Amino acid sequence: QVQLVESGGGLVQAGGSLRLSCVTSGRNISDYSMGWFRQAPGKDREFVAVARRRDGTTIYADSVKGRFTISRDNAKNTVYLQMTGLKPEDTAIYYCAADYGIGRTTGALWNYWGQGTQVTVSS
């Protein structure tokens, strides 16, 4: 069992930056692919980024590529999402997730989820 707790969300102006953190407990995150998803009001949950467990490969959604960076600190059991150049369309609840597999972009395949942290970008 893995517990995930996100933090770092908030209100920011367009063009600004935020860093989300996800602290895990229960098992070391080196056993998991770690990722971020988001869900905007009235929309389906969507994949944002993953840092895969075996080789550390990072993959990003096209909508955030070049602006967001996922990183993981296995010693601290923490995964981060550095977000820069934020846009109003980035407004959503951001969820941290852990996958014992390769970390596919389909959220339904992931094993564990945090409660989410709200990110609001004003224009």
Question: What features would you describe in this structure?
Answer:
The protein is 0% helix and 50% strand. With 123 residues, the chain is mainly β. Strands 2, 4, 5, 6, 9, 10 and 11 form a seven-stranded mixed sheet that branches. It has a four-stranded antiparallel sheet with strand order 1-3-8-7, with no helix packed on it. The model has no long low-confidence stretch (mean pLDDT 95).
Low-pLDDT windows of residues: none
Q: Beta-sheet strand percentage? A: over 45%
Structural category is mainly beta
Give the radius of gyration.
13 Å
Instruction: Give a short account of the largest sheet.
Output: 7 strands, mixed
Q: N-to-C terminal Cα separation, in Å?
A: 40 Å
Q: Count the E strands.
A: 11
The DSSP helix count reads 0
Write down the overall geometry: globular
Helix content: under 10%
Mean pLDDT: 95
Give the key terms.
mainly beta, seven-stranded mixed sheet, single chain, globular, four-stranded antiparallel sheet, 123 residues
Summarize the structure.
The chain has strands at residues 3-7, 10-13, 18-25, 33-39, 46-51, 58-60, 68-73, 78-83, 92-99, 112-113, 117-122.
What's the arrangement of secondary structure elements?
Elements: E1 3-7, E2 10-13, E3 18-25, E4 33-39, E5 46-51, E6 58-60, E7 68-73, E8 78-83, E9 92-99, E10 112-113, E11 117-122
Parallel strand pairs: 2-11
Antiparallel strand pairs: 1-3, 3-8, 4-5, 4-9, 5-6, 7-8, 9-10, 9-11
